Amino acid sequence: MENGLGAGVKPNVILITSDHHRWDYMGCAGEESIKTPNLDRLAARGTMVNRTYCNAPLCVPSRIAITSGRYPMNTGCFTNRHAINPQIPTFLHALRGNGYHTAMIGKLHHHVHVWDGDFIAHEADVQTLGFEHVHETSGKMGSGSIGCECQYTRFLREQGLLEAYRSWTGRFRQGNATMQPEEAWPWDKEFTQDAYIARKACEFLEQVSPHKPFYLHLGFVGPHDPYDAPQAYRDLNVSDVNVEDRIPSGAAGDGGRRELTKWQAYAACITEVDDRIGRVLDTLEAAGKLDHTVILYTSDHGDNAGDHGLWGKINLYEGSVHVPFIAAGPGIRQGAASNAIAELIDIGKTVCDFAGCSSHYLDQGLSLKPLLTGDVETHRMDAFCEMGSDKMLYDGRYKLMYGDLTRDTRKELQAAPYNGPAFGRPVNLPPDRISLYDLQEDPYEQRNLADDPEYRDIVAEMKEKLLNRLLRNMQSVPDDAGSVL
């Protein structure tokens, strides 16, 4: 592909997001037992930023941070119960002002997943955020047992499958929203939500006007649980590699042996997302748009996938907060990998920089364009992540977790019936645990150094760095319509 466009030519931009994809589970990231040929080819055509972190290890607050360019402490969106104010300033308005057609297809998840929620009615709010074309789906559980109405549930209803699908996903819910997500998709593999999203994206790319640049946020729902990829994708990842042998013996936590079957199901969901991305890239190329399009790939957060005996997210361990980031397109270095530190909050300003405009004045991100084009080698000094009152700072070697969501015993402000942080995280109480990890020597976070006398000075230094970062992050805008505080 060409590494540049003519003077004054604005590139198209596609932001592809998945859900629950941890940073190291791709072939191009060294995980050869998980087949991701399309992400691999995207990485070969572009640059991987290997130390990218989400700003909240949960769907809604992380995604709202991307769209708003602001930290959860400033939007007030800490959990999946905190919806976005549609009047919030976003980088999308700047794109539209610069002549871009803006579109959202798939999972955006700026809406609270309440029982029987209506995501189609919510599309008006998504348009207020700055998207002109909206075709939103509500995710696996939203479309399934939670009972939300969205474009995908309309499709399933037309196929006569909606009630069966909701009954099937309902069997995964047990007690405190615990999932047993190991069962393969039982219907036509072209009926999965990610297959549907890819088809709608391909239709958009085939029909969008060539006379105006476009920005597309394409949101896939996998590899979020239930890990229900069709069997065909599970078969692709069959390998002689013993998953246990690739991870230090302690990495699966005290629970003992890694749940291999569940791991394989999660891996298959990644492979399905990769396959759907490949179809979109092929359509983009067939339409003659590939060489004129900047493509960004990332995920809203990761998945512990058995590390520390945990599955899912909502904690500050690497599997939960460390995400993939791949960029390819005009002017971006090809076949490059950077160890610079980045945050998902940087996406808005990065998109605007490639588009030739400026984001809104409250945007707290930093454009990655100079890094992606090879003009600089560093980006951020540290990465910040938060979940309610609990905070994390990573400085390139040490990682301070000021609060440990996996061992939190607080029950205040928890919302029944799900007494978990996704639904009612305490945000006004001090954290009750502190952890320090040396990721250079201990990448799987097996040894907490916080209580080791030899690391007393490091703990103090990291606390000071975190305090300074909190002060820099904080925005004094009490009358801002974009905050729910």
Automatic annotation (TrEMBL):
Keyword Hydrolase: yes
Signal peptide range in chain numbering: none
Every Sulfatase N-terminal domain range: 11-356
Keyword Zinc: no
Domain of life: Bacteria
InterPro entries registered for this protein in UniProt: Alkaline_phosphatase_core_sf (IPR017850), Sulfatase_N (IPR000917)
Keywords: Hydrolase, Metal-binding
SUPFAM superfamilies: Alkaline phosphatase-like
Protein name according to UniProt: Sulfatase-like hydrolase/transferase
Organism whose genome encodes this protein: Paenibacillus radicis
